[in-house]
Amino acid sequence: MRAWYMDELLTDQREPHMTIPPQFLDENQLFERTGVEYFSINANAFADDAKLQALRKSRGYSYEDEITCSKECLADYEEKLKSFFTEHLHTDEEIRLVLDGSGYFDVRSDKEDDKWIRIEVVAGDLIVIPSGIYHRFTLDMKNYIKAKRYFVGEPVWLPYNRPADDMSCRKIYLKKLSDGFKSG
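RE: above sequence
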């Protein structure tokens, strides 16, 4: 996992878009500024990965599925990518384990500067995007990612496009941001 502040001038959403000079964040800085958690998982043997099993048990991830995003595998590919890249939030955490390929999750930094932080994910990266944070997703120039999605209970997969500041999940997120995030 690599994370950095983005150049706001997007010409092609699938390019890295780093600020000049690049401002990288390590996983602790990313967590402190956004609440996004990162875990390294063995993508080739994820079903037997002890760290993943412990994470699933401790956080109650009881449902999973798999998604492949590519021109060949995703119906209405271009429209799906546009919807994934529209800034939104969810009422539940978004948990993704990349099995193959790569892409970018963009999340908003703290409320004061409201800048985009781009998170590059590749095989073996598991990220947990907290409920209530504005974010978006795009593929990189390879146009392919295969990922496991985990949920607590049956998936509720409704994006709420920005602005959604009056939603309770957003208010809870901002309170956690203000108080400081606690892992797990």
